[in-house]
């Protein structure tokens, strides 16, 4: 096989990394190179690939160390039996790529994952060596996200947390049955055991830093995970309950979803077509409802139809339509918890309503300024000059409030 140069390796391994969705950079500590010390920063603007919670765009070099793998997971394009072109970086090549891209203002951080080569420990050593060299040799102060390997030695995973801002361990699939069928070489107990160890290490180091200023920082942006949607038979209800359990048990920053994508030479146990991308989007919306809007997992599941979230409307609207007895909500009197349940009202709009109504009675025009679609809101609210009367109970209400499908014009002004 012909020897590949760095550009060719980058083309292969950057493309292979596109299936990993968990590359956001929220929650990291602030570092910069002011004073002429170090290189890099976790702040600033650039060519952007991910968004932080405050709206900043974060650009990340997102690559695999290698797309070779000793595992044969059915759903993975890089599985052992897959007929794809293979490539591999050395740790030093990844370090130089990261530094060179940063100096050209292309990136602000590194997202590094890998297939498993030789053994889990050997691969984890290589990943840690990249992060260690960047931090200790080059004093790199940008963002680093490392994908860790559940089967690797606990000490190696701990070292990853010392050098990386965020670490992640993929649960792969929503159910244990799906994991056994599609990734028989992986074990749910080992994966969750590694996540438990990481949570304990994060908690221990946080506690140590409260007592001793000299204690090292450990994965300040926490840990996250990812699961594939649509590769097995798990419905949305099962996925939502699984995600909720992961948040509660491991204090995860995020659970990411990746819609299954058909791969070349696929196994017969895989579906022939990908799930709708809107399904992935609805799961992210359900995740938002649990994290920021006060919905319980069972309430989000209640918005589904036989376990599947509707694709034509968002989960919040679906819940409101199913539980019309909770509406309409008086925007001048209702508590924050109920205002957050109103379709079309986001957290910022609710905050504005709570602040404004302390000084005067809110009218429909006041609410109009806080939302994109007043039509969606009207059946579910009461204002000083508005009552929906029988509108909330109309049999065709779903048709009236669901968003219209419009064909956008390519050359519209």
From TrEMBL:
<dbReference type="InterPro" id="IPR007197">
    <property type="entry name" value="rSAM"/>
</dbReference>
<keyword id="KW-0479">Metal-binding</keyword>
<dbReference type="InterPro" id="IPR058240">
    <property type="entry name" value="rSAM_sf"/>
</dbReference>
<dbReference type="GO" id="GO:0003824">
    <property type="term" value="F:catalytic activity"/>
</dbReference>
<dbReference type="GO" id="GO:0046872">
    <property type="term" value="F:metal ion binding"/>
</dbReference>
<keyword id="KW-0949">S-adenosyl-L-methionine</keyword>
<dbReference type="InterPro" id="IPR023874">
    <property type="entry name" value="DNA_rSAM_put"/>
</dbReference>
<feature type="domain" description="Elp3/MiaA/NifB-like radical SAM core">
    <location>
        <begin position="59"/>
        <end position="286"/>
    </location>
</feature>
<dbReference type="InterPro" id="IPR010994">
    <property type="entry name" value="RuvA_2-like"/>
</dbReference>
<keyword id="KW-0411">Iron-sulfur</keyword>
<dbReference type="GO" id="GO:0051536">
    <property type="term" value="F:iron-sulfur cluster binding"/>
</dbReference>
<dbReference type="InterPro" id="IPR013785">
    <property type="entry name" value="Aldolase_TIM"/>
</dbReference>
<dbReference type="InterPro" id="IPR006638">
    <property type="entry name" value="Elp3/MiaA/NifB-like_rSAM"/>
</dbReference>
<dbReference type="Pfam" id="PF04055">
    <property type="entry name" value="Radical_SAM"/>
</dbReference>
<keyword id="KW-0408">Iron</keyword>
<dbReference type="InterPro" id="IPR051675">
    <property type="entry name" value="Endo/Exo/Phosphatase_dom_1"/>
</dbReference>
<protein>
    <submittedName>
        <fullName>Biotin synthase related domain containing protein</fullName>
    </submittedName>
</protein>
């Amino acid at each position: 096989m012909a020897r590949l140069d760095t550009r060719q390796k980058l083309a292969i391994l950057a493309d292979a990394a596109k299936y990993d969705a968990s590359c956001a950079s929220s929650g990291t500590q602030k570092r910069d190179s002011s004073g002429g010390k170090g290189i890099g920063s976790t702040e600033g603007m650039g060519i952007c690939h991910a968004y932080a919670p405050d709206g900043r765009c974060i650009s990340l070099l997102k690559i695999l160390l290698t797309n070779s793998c000793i595992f044969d997971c059915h759903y993975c394009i890089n599985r052992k039996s897959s007929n794809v072109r293979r490539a591999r970086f050395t740790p030093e090549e990844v370090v130089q790529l990261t530094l060179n891209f940063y100096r050209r203002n292309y990136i602000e951080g590194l997202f590094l994952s890998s297939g498993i080569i030789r053994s889990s420990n050997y691969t984890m050593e290589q990943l840690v060596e990249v992060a260690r060299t960047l931090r200790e040799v080059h004093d790199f102060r940008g963002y680093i996200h490392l994908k860790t390997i559940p089967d690797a030695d606990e000490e190696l995973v701990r070292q990853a947390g010392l050098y990386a801002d965020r670490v992640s361990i993929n649960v792969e699939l929503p159910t244990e049955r799906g994991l056994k069928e599609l990734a028989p070489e992986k074990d749910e107990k080992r994966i969750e055991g590694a996540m438990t160890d990481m949570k304990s290490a994060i908690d221990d180091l946080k506690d140590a830093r409260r007592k001793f200023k000299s204690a090292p920082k450990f994965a300040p942006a926490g840990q996250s995970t990812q699961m594939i949607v649509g590769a097995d038979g798990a419905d949305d209800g099962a996925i939502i309950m699984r995600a909720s359990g992961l948040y509660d048990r491991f204090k995860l920053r995020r659970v990411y979803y990746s819609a299954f994508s058909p791969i070349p030479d696929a196994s017969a146990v895989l579906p022939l077509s990908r799930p709708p991308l809107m399904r992935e989007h609805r799961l992210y919306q359900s995740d938002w409802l649990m994290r920021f809007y006060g919905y319980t997992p069972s309430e989000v599941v209640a918005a589904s139809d036989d376990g599947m979230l509707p694709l034509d409307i968002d989960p919040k609207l679906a819940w409101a339509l199913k539980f019309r007895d909770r509406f309409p909500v008086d925007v001048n009197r209702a508590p924050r918890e109920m205002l957050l349940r109103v379709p079309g009202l986001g957290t910022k709009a609710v905050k504005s309503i709570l602040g404004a109504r302390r000084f005067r009675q809110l009218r429909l025009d006041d609410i109009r300024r806080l939302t994109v679609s007043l039509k969606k809101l009207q059946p579910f609210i009461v204002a000083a000059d508005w009552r929906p009367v029988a509108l909330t109970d109309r049999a065709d209400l779903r048709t009236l409030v669901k968003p219209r499908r419009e064909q956008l014009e390519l050359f519209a002004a």
